[in-house]
Design goal:
This protein has 107 residues and is an all-beta fold. Helix content is 0%, strand content 51%. A hairpin with a 4-residue loop joins strand 3 and strand 4.
Length: 107
């Protein structure tokens, strides 16, 4: 029979924090978020992959017991997040633009 996989709901909250010691070209921010299923339950141990589209680099982390993940020390630019977990289909976010001139949150 047909087996339908659940869907991870990617709730992304991000804020860019500028450190006081950084020069204009070296400002770093961070990206944090939370992964939930369709019923709103948080999911620990989800693989979260952050791709830096401008520099072609990839960073990987896992969600904690509350479903949160965090990436620190990110340069301004365009990023994309994907989440994967057994029993769920892979989800990919829209392009996220981090800028050193703003603080933004996405839920």
């Amino acid at each position: 029979g047909l087996h339908v996989l659940g869907s991870l709901v990617l709730l992304v909250a991000f804020a860019l924090a500028v450190t006081g010691l950084a020069t204009a070209q070296e400002r770093f921010g961070g990206l944090t978020g939370r992964v939930k299923d369709q019923q709103g339950a948080t999911i620990p141990g989800v693989t979260v992959v952050l791709k830096d589209l401008d520099r072609d680099q990839t960073y990987t982390t896992l969600t904690n017991e509350s479903g949160f993940y965090s990436f620190a020390n990110l340069a301004s630019g365009r990023y994309q997040i994907s989440v994967e977990h057994p029993g769920f289909r892979k989800e990919i976010s829209n392009v996220i633009e981090l800028s050193s001139q703003e603080t933004a949150r996405r839920m």
